[in-house]
Design brief:
The complex is a heterodimer. By secondary structure, chain A is of the alpha+beta class. Chain A is 27% helix and 46% strand. Chain B contains six helices and eleven strands. The longest helix of chain B has 34 residues, at 2-35. The chains are: A alpha+beta, B alpha+beta.
Amino acid sequence: MKKITLNLVLSLLSLVFATQINAVTHDHEGQYDMETISVDNPWVRSAPPNAPILGAFMEISNHSDGNIKLLSANTKGYKRLELHKTVFQGGMMKMIKQDFMSIPAHGKLTLKPGSWHIMMIQPKKVPREGDSVVIKLVFDNGLSKTIYAKVRKGRAMDSKKMMHHQH
Amino acid sequence: MLKKTSIVIVAVTIIVVTFFLYGNSNRDYKALGSQLKVSHIIYNPNKSLPSFSLVDQDNQLFNNDNLKGGWTLLLFIYTHCPDVCPTELLDMSTLKKLMLKDKAISTPKVVVITFDPLRDTPEVLKEYVRHFDKDFIGVSGEQAQINQLIKPFGAYYERVIYDEKGKSVILKANDKLPESALQDGYVINHTAWIYLINPEGQIFAGFPSPHNPSKMADDIKLIMNQF
């Protein structure tokens, strides 16, 4: 009888702990999602089956009072991911590798064709249109976020506007 | 006296006719040029495209003759390009679909030449380019031939590698590529115009980036109708 009571108490205790841990984890994620960073419309541009490089695009919003930097992006099945920006300079379209991407306080950074993008190098298998690619974004201050980017066709509609402004 | 007068009359006639023809043709292209929305006429009748010899995606010879007999849209790309080149190819497939709707006019063929034959072999190009349209023609060949060919188009490029400290190093077209570069990878900064070649195989017009397929199609129709 004593044994049963002890077991019961232990089970109850572990349940309480587990619930608390869950609650803490949940709160953390909720906090990051709701208050600090949100990512909208993540997508990867569909590419030929032998494409050695893919591009990922999205909108990253910073809801906090301080500037945040995207430091890296990671995923499985690629040699590496790099942060890049396409710029028009000296008559050429240039790929400029970035150490980070800044998202200003209460601001938004849009990654789009012809501008900021995540370069996905050497896929083991090029995803098909309609597939989802899991990408982990790592920010400074230890924040990170996992996103599911849909593979779809894409044109540089927005970048055209940007380029016209440049001229 | 009569002979002298005849010579003068003939000479004057030749000068006038030549001037008229030359002036007229120039005026025609000027008039045409002013109607174009997104393209520039870069045709120079005194400067023909130098001869070149490359290889198409089926390992067949591709030279000046392949640009003759019909209109061609020509662009230079590389397949390790994450952003600009796929956009251009997508734009060309959109443009082709738009032009096919107009039954009264033929659609130019699309020729895609790589800046980067080291990595873009004919086989690689074939699979890559056909993803955008089954009729697009990928062209590779010797780097030296490509470097020569791009000059009259006003196209140029540079390779970007990274040193041990992660600092970018720019290599011009004729600079030697370190052996490690193929393993480590490199990007290419490049001009991104698309060119329209006339049925004589000569550069006729250029379209700077970014490209608007619908406006390009309108310009191409105007050019083809008035050439």
